[in-house]
C-alpha cells in the first residue's frame, strides 16, 4: 500500500486514493473467500454421489484452504501491480494541473516568507484588537463609575436645595444657623423615636403578662 498521503487527490475526489484501493482489495478478497466456499460445497455435493470415494470432508477443507492460500498469494502480487498503475495513472493528479478552487493561488502567488509575514500581521492585528477591546471595557466601567458618582452628587445638591428651602421657610439663611436648626430637629426626632420604642416595649410586656 502506498504511503504517499496524496492530499491534493483527496481534496479533488473527496477521499484518499489509498482508501479507495483498500476497499477494492477487501472487496476482491471477500469475493475470493466466498467463491472458495462455493467451490468446496459443490465438491462435497459431487462426492455424495460416489459412496465408495475415500476422500473425507476434512481433506477437502484442507485442500480448499491450501488452494485459497495459493490464490491469495498470487492475488496480492497482481493487486500490488494494479494498485501501482491505478495510483499513478488513474487516481493521480499531475503536478501541472491546478484545481478550480485553487486558481486564486495562481492569480495571487505568495512565497513562504510573504505568507509568514501575513500571518505575523494578522497576529499583531488580533493582539491590537484584544488590547483595544480591553481598553474599551475599562473605559465603559469608568463611565459607569462616573455616572454613579454624578448621581450621588445630584442627590447631595438636591439635599442642599431642600436645606436652603427649609431655611427660607424658617427665616434662617445663615448655613451655620441652619445646620444648628437641623441638628436640634434631629435631636427631637431621636427623642420621639426613643420614647416610641420605650412605649412599644411596655406594651409588649403588658401583652405577655396578659
TrEMBL record:
Species: Oceanites oceanicus
Coiled coil: 108-206
Similarity-based family: Belongs to the mis12 family.
GO BP annotation list: cell division; kinetochore assembly; mitotic sister chromatid segregation
Localization annotation: Chromosome, Centromere, Kinetochore
Primary residence: nucleus
Alphabetized Pfam families for the sequence: Mis12
Keywords: Cell cycle, Cell division, Centromere, Chromosome, Coiled coil, Kinetochore, Mitosis
GO annotation, cellular component aspect: MIS12/MIND type complex; nucleus
UniProt-recorded name of the protein: Protein MIS12 homolog
Membrane-crossing segments per the record: none
